[in-house]
């Protein structure tokens, strides 16, 4: 019997969402990433997932229960110039939504800087609603999951309006049992240096215990990536909602 829990990622990076999806029991059907070095890693880590290169012209067309994407945050982040969601990099959100409308997943996961709450959230919610999705969201930090880094990010779960409405999809942390290889969730909210390298140099979850090489590619890729334990929580919330139907 085929696994009904399927996942496609856009703007995949090094596969933070894909790593979490696999842990929760989802089949990674396809990914889409423009960076060749990232694609080389993804091919090794997820050899059975079909690869695509550009959400604007070479993108997944397979059907999937979930589509995830953390679109570029450079124009949204407080560290950027504040161009917002229509900026040169962050406007890729709209290209991702074009792909979503072709695939028509039951669930969408979107991740970005919390600054999007005042630099494009209305546009995101409007686009989701026009596409036939209801949405709920949470701001989640690495420190909530036991890591000594704040790294606060906004996660949106959108669900097709065609689906039966149940309880909220996001669940309290105590209601979700995370994979036992991750650190224990906590509410410590430790504030430490959040530069791209600090807090990620020794992060080994993506490589299953193999130390990440300390080079520019990995520092940049990890700095841009979704933390898999946080993504796992999101996927477990979706799985629980799907199984309630």
**DSSP, total strands:** 7
Strand order of the largest sheet: 3-2-1-4-5-7-6
Please name the fourth-level CATH homologous superfamily of the domain at 6-141 and 153-166 and 228-243: Vaccinia Virus protein VP39
Q: What is the terminal-to-terminal distance?
A: 19 Å
Under CATH, the topology of the domain at 6-141 and 153-166 and 228-243 is which?
Rossmann fold
Number of helices: 6
> Which CATH class of the domain at 6-141 and 153-166 and 228-243 applies here?
Alpha Beta
Percent in strands: 15-25%
What is the residue-averaged pLDDT? 83
Shape: globular
Q: What does the largest sheet look like?
A: 7 strands, mixed
* Rg on CA atoms, Å: 17 Å
Judging by the overall fold, what is the CATH architecture of the domain at 6-141 and 153-166 and 228-243? 3-Layer(aba) Sandwich
Helicity, in percent? 25-40%
Structural class: alpha/beta
Order of helical and strand elements: EHEHEEHEHEEHH
Uncertain stretches of 5 or more adjacent residues: 183-212
What does this structure look like?
- The protein has 245 residues and is α/β, with parallel strands linked by helices.
- The chain has a domain of 166 residues: 3-Layer(aba) Sandwich (Rossmann fold).
- Helices cover 27% and strands 17% of the residues.
- It contains six helices and seven strands, in the order E-H-E-H-E-E-H-E-H-E-E-H-H.
- Strand 2, helix 2 and strand 3 form a beta-alpha-beta unit.
- 43% of the residues are buried.
- About 12% of the residues have low confidence.
């Amino acid at each position: 019997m085929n696994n009904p829990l399927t996942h496609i990622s856009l703007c995949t990076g090094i596969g933070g969402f894909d790593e979490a999806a696999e842990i929760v029991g989802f089949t990674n059907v396809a990914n889409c990433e423009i960076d060749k070095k990232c694609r080389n890693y993804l091919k090794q880590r997820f050899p059975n997932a079909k690869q695509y290169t550009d959400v604007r012209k070479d993108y997944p067309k397979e059907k999937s229960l979930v589509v995830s994407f953390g679109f570029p945050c450079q124009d949204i982040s407080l560290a950027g110039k504040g161009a917002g969601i229509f900026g040169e990099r962050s406007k890729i959100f709209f290209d991702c939504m074009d792909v979503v409308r072709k695939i028509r997943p039951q669930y969408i996961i979107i991740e970005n800087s919390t600054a999007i709450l005042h630099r494009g959230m209305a546009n995101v919610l409007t686009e989701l609603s026009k596409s036939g999705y209801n949405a709920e969201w949470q701001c989640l930090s690495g420190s909530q999951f036991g890591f000594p880094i704040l790294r606060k990010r906004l996660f949106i779960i959108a669900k097709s309006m065609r689906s039966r409405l149940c309880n909220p999809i996001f669940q309290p942390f105590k209601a979700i049992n995370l994979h036992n290889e991750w650190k224990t969730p906590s509410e410590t909210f430790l504030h430490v240096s959040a530069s791209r390298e600090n807090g990620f140099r020794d992060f080994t979850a993506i490589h299953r215990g193999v130390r990440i090489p300390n080079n520019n590619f990995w520092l940049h890729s990890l700095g841009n990536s979704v933390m898999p334990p946080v993504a796992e929580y999101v996927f477990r919330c979706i799985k629980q909602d799907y199984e309630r139907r």
